[in-house]
């Protein structure tokens, strides 16, 4: 179930922020959902709209997923009423990965240039955050994840060279992929937010297989670089009671902590994973044998 409202802002660009909430659901509820209900509860269809922040709050770990695509000029991060905060990052941390043209993020007066697939972590307590595209014809697309925070860690840019890189899978099992750990505790300190990017090799389509759950954390997947005319089938649900959601390019999906989160595309693609929860142990997974999935 979701609720949505539009919030006025006082940004330099006179736009509005779209904010919706998705309530937490149990495995028993999901078992009875039809296609429309699954998509309504878990799929985030429109992440990027010109000059407009779009936020979806999941009540799983109060995870915020959003995007901003500045076109007509700088856009300043506003504070939705639902946060009940003086400013957005009063009690939150923020992760950003640019999936568009070159851009700049200015955090409390310090500028960080982000090229394609570069990341930025902004710590709790940062009051002013501004987003800028260098070319309105090829605007930056800042993909945003935010989680509650209890400590102020330093803001830091993470380039592709700074990432912890792991190569997994094989072409023979259609899941040869490169995992780029960007905003993780082995690269920089965070309260609970973790983000990274997995790139599938040509000829591979499966991600995160064998599938797993982790009761200690929830996740959000954002699929991009999906070629025109192609799609990704995202699998969710308990291992013995799976469901699927067909997804298009630049869409995101919420994964509860009790659910598997895996996908297969009609072509290779890239996806960003974001996590929040009790721990920062990337390897904390409860694996399910492929042959046990139902």
UniProtKB/TrEMBL annotation:
EC number: 5.3.1.17
Pathway: Glycan metabolism; pectin degradation; 2-dehydro-3-deoxy-D-gluconate from pectin: step 4/5
A GO term, aspect molecular function: 4-deoxy-L-threo-5-hexosulose-uronate ketol-isomerase activity
Cofactor(s) named in the record: Zn(2+)
Catalyzed reaction equations: 5-dehydro-4-deoxy-D-glucuronate = 3-deoxy-D-glycero-2,5-hexodiulosonate
Functional note: Catalyzes the isomerization of 5-dehydro-4-deoxy-D-glucuronate to 3-deoxy-D-glycero-2,5-hexodiulosonate.
Name under which the protein is recorded: 4-deoxy-L-threo-5-hexosulose-uronate ketol-isomerase
Organism: Spirosoma terrae
């Amino acid at each position: 179930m979701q609720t949505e409202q539009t919030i006025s802002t006082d940004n330099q660009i006179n736009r509005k922020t779209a904010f919706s909430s998705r309530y937490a659901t149990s495995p028993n509820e999901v078992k009875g959902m039809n296609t429309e209900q699954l998509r309504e509860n878990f799929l985030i269809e429109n992440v990027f709209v010109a000059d407009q922040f779009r936020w979806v709050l999941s009540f799983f770990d109060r995870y915020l997923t959003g995007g901003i695509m500045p076109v007509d000029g700088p856009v300043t991060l506003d504070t939705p009423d639902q946060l009940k905060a003086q400013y957005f990052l009063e009690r939150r941390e923020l992760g950003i990965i640019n999936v568009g043209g070159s851009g700049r993020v200015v955090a409390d007066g310090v500028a960080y240039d982000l090229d394609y697939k570069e990341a930025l972590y902004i710590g709790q307590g940062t009051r002013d955050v501004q987003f800028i595209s260098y070319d309105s014809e090829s605007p930056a697309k800042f993909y945003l994840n935010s989680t509650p925070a209890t400590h102020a860690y330093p803001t830091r840019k993470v380039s592709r060279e700074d990432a912890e890189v792991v190569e997994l899978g094989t072409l023979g099992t259609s899941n040869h992929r490169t995992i780029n750990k960007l905003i993780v505790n082995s690269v920089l300190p965070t309260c609970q937010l973790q983000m990274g990017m997995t790139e599938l090799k040509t000829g591979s389509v499966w991600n995160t297989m064998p599938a797993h759950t982790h009761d200690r954390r929830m996740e959000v997947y954002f699929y991009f670089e999906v070629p025109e005319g192609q799609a990704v089938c995202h699998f969710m649900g308990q291992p013995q009671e799976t469901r699927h959601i067909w997804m298009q390019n630049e869409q995101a999906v919420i994964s509860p902590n009790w659910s598997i989160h895996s996908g297969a595309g009609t072509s290779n693609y890239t996806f960003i994973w974001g996590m929040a929860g009790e721990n920062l142990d990337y390897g904390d997974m409860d694996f399910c044998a492929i042959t046990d999935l139902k």
